[in-house]
Amino acid sequence: MMKTNQEYKKTIRIMEVCGTHTQAIAKSGIRSMLPKHVELLSGPGCPVCVTGEAYIDAAIRLLDDDNVILATFGDMLKVRGAFSSLSEKKGKDNIITVYSPEDAIALAQKKPNKTVVFLAVGFETTAPIIAATIKNVYENGVENLFFFTALKRMEPILRFILEDEGNQIDGLICPGHVASVLGGEAFRFVTEEFHLPAVICGFEAEDMKMGIYSLLDQIQGKSPVSFLNLYKPCVSHIGNKLAKEYMNEVYQIEDGYWRGIGKVSNSGLGLRGKYQRLDAKKKYLFSEEIISKPSACQCREIILGRKAPYECKQFGVDCTPETPLGPCMISSEGACAAHYRYGRGNL
After folding, report:
1. Which range marks the domain in which residue 207 is found?
2. What's the average model confidence in pLDDT over 113-126?
């Protein structure tokens, strides 16, 4: 068990904001090694979990056109919009599961008489490869492929959480994959502006334990509050220069819409300038209207770090991976799915 100051009685809440960290922490059993007063919370690090209902509804409406084929990652299929999911609308060849944005190019070339729309979902981790694909399509004239973007930026949502007066987070494990693209300096604001201990760490159990231990030391006053990069083999000071160049060329910053949260200013990435010719939002004139629908799902509270999955009355009862009520139980990187799969007894 990790040791903490036994005289420190206050509940300590540490949040991670990376779907891979969510899954790795649950799988490794790290929670069972921590004292009872230390809580590990999962923030909005799963891109599927934060994709809004309106986006899913718009994708489903595209299928009203028999000429349209949707290309999507598999974990998007079960995510519900306001009334249904893509899996419920899936026919023989109207929705195709792909494993890379580049697969959508091959699909469009194979189906020249169809319009292929790729559902571009993710954070700054997947945004560069999608940007490279968009650039490739624009320059090489694949005329029947379009991109429906719901790409998110990590910094604005972290600011949204940390500026909330009800925020009770004591330390932050920064998203390692996003940091490898943007660079470690992209998250220094967490400590410098919000005076919160923050760490970048890897995904192996020992990496995460080291990150948590360093945060506990700071929170308990054993060491000064600081920002630490413990993942230097993969996260440099400035990040991946080429990946950022692709993003800066292809995308522009715009408002983003987050499931259960709503609009967060400057938290989205949309297509810029000449690349808007490939923008499905422009082609089909999608509305950004958010539809509110009563739901027993408490994903909002979970991804904002206000609740742990087991604090939801539906968790493991009406909401399971077989019968999910919300996206946090659908994606393997969702907090609820990870908690459910890797041992509810250790939560």
Report:
1. 8-294
2. 96
